Description:
The protein is 37% helix and 12% strand. The chain has helices at residues 19-30, 37-45, 49-56, 58-73, 90-99, 109-116, 130-145, 160-171; strands at 2-5, 8-12, 34-36, 79-81, 100-106, 150-153, 178-181. The chain is globular. Bound molecules: adenosine-5'-diphosphate, shikimate-3-phosphate and magnesium ion.
Amino acid sequence: MTEILHKTVVLVGMMGAGKTAIGTELARLLGVPFVDSDDEIVRAANMSIPEIFARDGEAFFRLKEAQVIARLLSGPPGILSVGGGAFLSAETRTRITGLGISVWLRADLELLWTRVRQKTSRPLLRTANPRQTLGELLAERDPIYALADLTVDARAEYSIAEMAGQVCAALLSRPDVVQSAPYAGGTDGSAPAGTAGRAGSGAAKAQPPPRGEPDRPQTPSAGNERAAPRNTTAGAPARRNGGAK
Length: 245
Ligand SMILES: Nc1ncnc2c1ncn2[C@@H]1O[C@H](COP(=O)(O)OP(=O)(O)O)[C@@H](O)[C@H]1O
Ligand SMILES: O=C(O)C1=C[C@@H](OP(=O)(O)O)[C@@H](O)[C@H](O)C1
Ligand SMILES: [Mg+2]
């Protein structure tokens, strides 16, 4: 069995919730393209996010973020991780509801802080007391993230692979988004490259769970925080969506 994705799955939630890491893994499990709105903005601007905030301001970043998300949502179904502030825009939320499905990766302050504390790449946390700032943002934003279609709880003890499996399981409750379909490929019953068989049941166990590490310290000028090869549209394995949307 494999899965057919009908709509883009948009991962939302606070900085450090794991949207980028889990989105990457989820896309790999489902064998669909992965995109991250922050990466797209960084690539288009050829500047890091702190550089964009410093030179052009947050309002400009938010404008670009909304535009990039609109463009990505109009493409074929895949996994889209968005920056933590993106879902605050009512216009973006409406677009996501119309063209995709939102999944909130819900995490508490302690977990978020563990994940973001060592890194300087998030300009909103460049304050005198970044932990307090993170807590204030969390309190302001949680009621808005709660508007998402699905919620998956992030816990410190869940690896990235386990979290991706949890998201798969939640998505399987929505046949309008993800459908299990018989695999019509090889004769040996094995899944095609880039798939993890039936998501949700065994997806998280299909690979040894690579425990993610908290962000490492990095200079702001280092630009894009994710240097590893990504499962991007260009490099994605063949889709099994049948173009459905
Ligand atoms: N389930 C997890 N287990 C361990 N580390 C994780 C997990 N999810 C994310 N991380 C790590 O936490 C940090 C922040 O994750 P990231 O995906 O960048 O969050 P976001 O995109 O939501 O800001 C990264 O270093 C990532 O590898
Ligand atoms: O929460 C936010 O407002 C932001 C989150 C960041 O993305 P992540 O949520 O992927 O860290 C990035 O878009 C920018 O620093 C602003
Ligand atoms: Mg991210």
